[in-house]
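Q: What residues go here?
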């Protein structure tokens, strides 16, 4: 019998151990044989094994060498393909070379949740859906609505690319070791390309970052490098508003206006 694995803080490891919660998550994912699926951070395999039972074959991305060794011992390569390395650097597009859409799942480490979500957004056009367990606070920010405390850069940039739904919460006691925070399951489904109308996605990101950089300040101050008074008139947007009051579509309109207008005089 192998030695118990000690969770490593540097990898943000908290292993799911409650069988009822595991079953509920698998039911939420709804894996079907033939799905092209990758699990990020399989850990001790709590979700890996039931996923494989439904799918027949599963891809996983894991950085911990000890856990990789355990997975290799427990599962033959015809059932489990292990991609060794950091999910933040992994090319998820490599799994869809033949055009079949990818499904992505995982219990994402709390310490890298935001950067990994932005990394995954780069592959939205090749993904069918994503189902993740994250810190509840992060999920609330992801699905936050304009005018709320949770709404911010993460909300706008992810909602531009995905339709998202918070599904249910997972208590600390479902993990070993138990984290100090509540977790939530969130489903992310890429929006159709026709709905993603920003002419310059990088510019959209810069404008959104600026708008939320100093939340207490108005758009007149936060976006002064991008918009003048005439621009607000043309856009029909009140420069006295704060960024948190604008919806995703309004940020896209601003970015497209700046792109069409050219540099601010």
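A:
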């Amino acid at each position: 019998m192998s030695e118990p694995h000690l969770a490593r803080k540097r990898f943000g490891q908290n292993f799911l151990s409650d069988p009822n919660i595991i079953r509920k998550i698998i039911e939420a994912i709804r894996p079907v044989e033939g799905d092209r699926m990758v699990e990020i951070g399989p850990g001790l395999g709590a979700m890996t094994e039931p996923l494989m039972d439904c799918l027949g074959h599963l891809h996983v991305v894991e950085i911990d060498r000890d856990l990789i060794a355990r997975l290799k011992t427990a599962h033959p390569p015809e059932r489990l393909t292990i991609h060794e390395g950091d999910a933040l650097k992994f090319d998820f597009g490599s799994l869809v070379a033949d055009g079949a859409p990818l499904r992505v799942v995982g219990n994402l480490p709390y310490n890298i949740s935001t950067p990994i979500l932005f990394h995954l957004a780069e592959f939205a056009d090749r993904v069918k859906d994503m189902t993740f367990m994250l810190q509840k606070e992060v999920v609330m920010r992801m699905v936050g609505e304009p005018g709320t405390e949770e709404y911010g850069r993460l909300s706008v940039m992810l909602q531009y690319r995905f339709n998202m739904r918070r599904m249910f919460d997972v208590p600390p006691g479902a993990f070993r070791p138990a984290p100090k925070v509540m977790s939530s399951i969130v489903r992310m489904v890429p929006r159709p390309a026709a709905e993603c109308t920003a002419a310059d996605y990088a510019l959209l990101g810069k404008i959104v970052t600026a708008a939320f950089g100093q939340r207490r300040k108005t758009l007149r101050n936060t976006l002064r490098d991008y918009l003048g008074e005439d621009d607000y008139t043309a856009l029909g947007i009140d420069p006295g508003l704060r960024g948190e009051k604008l919806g995703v579509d309004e940020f896209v309109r601003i970015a497209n206006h700046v792109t069409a207008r050219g540099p601010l005089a």
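A: Context that may help when evaluating the design: Residues 248-261 form the longest helix (14 residues). The CA atoms of residues 191 and 251 lie 17 Å apart.
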